[in-house]
Design goal:
The longest helix is centred in the N-terminal third of the chain and has 17 residues. Helix 1 crosses helix 2 and helix 5 packs across helix 6. The protein has 637 residues and is α/β, with parallel strands linked by helices. 22% of the residues lie in helices and 28% in strands.
């Protein structure tokens, strides 16, 4: 059960803060009465992504390793405004099925103003239906333009936000969050807020987010984490005093503080550092908000399912569903007023909370259970269309592992009933030839209890295998259900691995009545392979039909035929990358012995940038940042 007071039976005994400056100390847990009746929960949506774009048009030369499950190309129409509105409406409806309070939106500046206004309009029009609220956040890059300029940029969308009935509110004031407020000084933040309040009135509360803590030598979370574990849960008192003073300087000029990057609080195993988050970050923030000058101010924390940036290399492993469940548990049981969850649909970083191809609707089911427990404990409802005769069981395993890492299969029962129905699950693991390499004794579950069981096998014992696939045999009330296909398959690599995602399947989401036939044909004396694929589904729409080679999509059927080529055409993907941001780069693409017949920018947002580019041969572009791929078709002469 979620409590509004942080109550712990163990109080840590610590040296007085007047100790020698290098003396390591730990932070005591304290109690704080939250300002709000219960925590509000907001996944952060990125407006640059949508449900209709062709996912092959990504940011870099690397393919995305996940994509939205509820992808719908029919939303992509010539009516750009309606296209965006319908996408936003669909996103709000999906979020409503999670039972969350709405979306947080990260405002980058005037280039996104129209998208933000559209999202607010959609939220207002559908508020009675979905109840979805919006939490507007301003990014630190806007603040870096100076208080006056930042206010000029932010004021128009703030005025619209203030009039919105779907705006997140505390009393009669709208709530504003932020991202890396500490890009600028507290004095600049104070000036920015003063200017805004003169223009729009005292009609908002602004919560500052601290991107990185600033101590003396310890000036970011990784350094604090290292020092914390080196000293068995303690940090030097002078560093503690310094970071308290740093965060307090923002709290003094704002209406609260926010820690919104739990997906970067990692231990040395690239896992969520539960100990550090629970026993350092939470007491640090709680202690500051308990100070006399901070009474009545707001606390925001974060929760996430991990961070797998397959392009830049940063990783916080999902650890099955543990990172999501553990971070939610810490945030929601720490006396916080609201939780920002990065992110709803960030495919570069694979932080996606929305249903995806690899994670299916597993996050949706866990979030729904968590929110129902938060809003009305003891009352649960299954998802619409669920066959409740099938256990609400999520099966998770890594997509790929390297030899030396542990192979695991996580089985998680997510309650959506208060009625106790015991059932057992027996799991066997098979290799690519169908040989049984592990047989597990039956696990016991209760449908009304959140329960996790795991199979863990050192991969060096599986070195002869190329792939591993679980199969399940479930027994409930005398009925037996066997699942032999559709569960997560794990590839074993001997060396490097770019795909660190977990594949997650809920048994209730798996197709019940479908057929698939693949007919391979070798061509060109075995140098090429042709595949004839036929697929049909009786009840569930087929959203994707893909052919993968080594887990990389090499073909995907697109109902629009946008990227299909004739025999005399080739498709070229152009991209540019650099280590650092660069000044606009003039790039000219010309073709010998061919004509350019098609041109498409990367995001399909039909921005003003496209109209400025010359799309007749040769293509002339000004590249503005690291990753701006495009597609072009070339017809051979």
């Amino acid at each position: 059960m979620f409590k509004r007071l942080l109550c712990l039976s163990l109080l840590l005994t610590t040296p007085a803060l007047a100790a020698d400056d290098q003396t390591p100390v730990s932070l005591p847990h304290v109690q704080r009465k939250a300002v709000l009746e219960r925590p509000l929960v907001f996944p952060r949506i990125r407006n640059i992504y949508n449900l209709y774009r062709n996912f092959f048009q990504n940011f870099a030369e690397y393919e995305w390793i996940d994509r939205p499950l509820f992808y719908d190309r029919s939303l992509d129409t010539a009516d750009t405004i309606n296209m965006i509105i319908q996408n936003n409406k669909r996103q709000m409806e999906i979020a409503a099925s999670y039972d969350v309070d709405g979306f947080s939106m990260l405002y980058h500046g005037s280039i996104h103003e129209e998208n933000f206004r559209n999202m607010i309009d959609v939220a207002d029009l559908n508020f009675e239906k979905t109840g979805g609220r919006l939490l507007l956040s301003v990014i630190g890059n806007v603040l870096q333009k100076g208080p006056e300029k930042a206010a000029d940029i932010f004021e128009p969308v703030l005025n619209r936000y203030i009039t919105s009935k779907s705006a997140a509110r505390v009393g009669d004031k709208v709530l504003l969050a932020s991202y890396s407020t500490d890009y600028v000084s507290p004095q600049d933040v104070a000036t920015f807020l003063e200017i805004l309040r003169k223009r729009v009135g005292d009609r908002f509360l602004f919560v500052a987010s601290i991107g990185q803590p600033k101590g003396i030598q310890l000036n970011n979370w990784p350094r604090f984490i290292y020092e914390y574990h080196k000293n068995a849960g303690k940090v030097p008192v002078d560093e503690l005093k310094a970071v308290q003073a740093h965060i307090r300087s923002y709290l003094d000029v704002c209406d609260g503080i926010l820690m919104n990057n739990a997906n970067h609080i990692d231990n040395l195993e690239n896992q969520l550092d539960v100990d550090f988050y629970r026993n350092f970050i939470v007491p640090l923030y709680m202690g500051l908000l308990n100070e006399p000058n901070a009474q009545g101010k707001l606390l925001g924390l974060s929760a996430s399912l991990g961070y797998v940036n397959h392009i830049a290399g940063g990783t916080q492993l999902e650890n099955g569903t543990r990172a999501l469940r553990q971070s939610l548990d810490i945030a929601l049981n720490s006396g916080t007023d609201f939780v920002v969850m990065p992110e709803w649909n960030e495919y570069n970083e694979n932080t996606c909370l929305e249903p995806t191809v690899n994670r299916s609707q597993s996050t949706q089911r866990i979030m729904r259970y968590t929110m129902q427990q938060l809003k009305h404990p003891g009352r649960f409802e299954p998802m619409e269309g669920d066959d409740t005769a099938i256990p609400n069981l999520i099966v998770s395993a890594r997509a790929q592992i390297m030899l030396g890492q542990t192979y695991y299969v996580e089985l998680l029962n997510v309650p959506d009933t208060t009625t106790h129905h015991p059932y057992t699950v027996r799991c066997v693991i098979k290799d690519e030839s169908g040989k049984v390499v592990h047989e597990q004794a039956a696990f016991e579950f209760d449908a009304a209890t959140l329960t996790e069981h795991r199979i863990e096998i050192p991969s060096e014992l599986l070195a002869d295998c190329r792939t591993l696939k679980p199969e399940l045999r479930m027994t409930q009330g005398g009925q037996i259900l066997e699942i032999k296909t559709g569960l997560p398959v794990t590839r074993l690599n001997t060396t490097w691995n770019r795909n660190r995602l977990c594949i997650k399947r809920c048994l209730r989401d798996m197709p019940r009545d479908y057929a698939l036939k693949v007919t391979p044909t070798l061509l060109d004396d075995g140098k090429a392979l042709s595949l004839d694929v036929w697929a049909a589904s009786k009840d569930d729409p087929i959203r994707y039909l893909e052919v993968l080679e080594d887990d990389i999509v090499v073909y995907a059927h697109d109902v629009t035929g946008e990227l299909e080529t004739n025999d005399d055409e080739v498709l070229v993907h152009l991209s540019y990358g650099s280590k650092d941001e660069i000044k606009p780069l003039a790039l000219e693409v010309d073709v010998e012995h061919g004509n350019i017949t098609y041109f498409e920018d990367r995001l399909r947002i039909r921005s003003a940038r496209e109209s400025r580019w010359e799309t007749t041969p040769p293509i002339k572009m000004n590249w503005k940042s690291n990753f701006n791929p495009l597609f072009t078709k070339i017809c051979k002469l």
